[in-house]
Design brief:
245 residues; mainly alpha; 12 helices; 81% helix; membrane; transmembrane helix; transmembrane
Length: 245
């Protein structure tokens, strides 16, 4: 992953010397490649989140089945951000040059759209592996469904992942790195999906349960994650810093 990131940086840097618009194409292509690798790691992340062990063999075998959706997701993400960047720059310059509040309003709307999309799409890769290899459209749709049904939770995980990314930059992406961030999102979503299993079970018992939002929000989390707590066992700072002991 580090080699991919270094190669990405060099590709973007030197492509600018050939053509000023070439870096944008390089960013899109490189994003597709990096996201393919990250997608392949998602298979291991799902295993680790479920208290199983991962392997390099699983990573390489996953590449064969996920490279299309991984590359497409990376291209969509990077192309969308590039378009948003140029659009926001245009709207800001429109406001500064003419004083038109239309540019300011469009900037705000586009900014919120980008932020909400980024928060929602953190669930894209975990959904693919945790729910039976969904297709591109299903993962995209379900990502936003989970976001709108769990806004506070999604924002908290997003902020937590930003903190992890900050630590990753300090440690040159050695730890926790992009893989650790993906594991964080995968584990968070795996636990959150217990809520929907519980709702489904309650609906089977009481058909009108799904319409009662107050009761739907009374999720018995202690009961739902009891098995996970038992599997994980007690944890303290010593076991966190020295997990092999």
């Amino acid at each position: 992953m580090i080699a991919l990131l270094v190669g990405s940086f060099l590709a973007v840097r030197y492509s600018a010397e050939i053509n000023p618009y070439l870096p944008n194409l390089a960013i899109v292509l490189v994003s597709g490649i990096v996201m393919t690798a990250l997608f392949a790691w998602g298979a291991n992340a799902a295993k680790l989140a479920d208290f199983c062990s991962g392997s390099f063999g699983l990573f390489f075998s996953a590449i064969k089945s996920v490279w299309k959706i991984g590359f497409a997701f990376g291209v969509m993400l990077s192309a969308g951000l590039l378009i948003a960047r140029y659009a926001i720059s245009y709207y800001v310059s429109l406001y500064l040059s003419s004083g038109s509040y239309v540019g300011l309003v469009l900037t705000a709307l586009l900014g919120w759209f980008v932020l909400i999309s980024l928060i929602a799409l953190q669930w894209f890769i975990p959904l693919y592996f945790l729910q039976g290899n969904n297709g591109f459209k299903k993962c995209l749709k379900k990502s936003f469904i989970i976001f709108y049904d769990n806004v506070g939770f999604s924002v908290e995980v997003f902020i937590y992942n930003i903190v992890l990314f900050g630590f990753s930059c300090i440690f040159f992406m050695l730890m926790p790195g992009l893989n650790g961030i993906l594991l964080s999102s995968t584990n968070a979503l795996r636990l959150r999906l217990y809520k929907y299993d519980w709702i489904e079970k309650m609906v089977e018992q009481e058909p009108d349960f799904e319409k009662d939002r107050d009761r739907r929000n009374e999720v018995p989390w202690d009961e739902l994650i009891a098995d996970d707590k038992e599997s994980l066992g007690p944890r303290n700072w010593k076991s966190f810093l020295f997990p092999w002991k």
